[in-house]
Amino acid sequence: MPTPPLPTSADLLVLHTLRCIGFAELARVSAVTGLPEPDAESELIDLAVAGLVTRVPGEFGGWGLTEAGRVADAERIAAELDAAGARSAVAAAYDDFLVLNPELLDLCSAWQLRSVDGVVTQNDHADPAYDARILRLFTDFDRRADAVCGRLSAALPRFRRYRVRLADALARAGSGAPERLTDDVESYHTVWFQLHEDLLVTLGIPRH
Question: With 80 as the cut, is the pLDDT of residue 200 above it?
Answer without folding.
Answer: yes
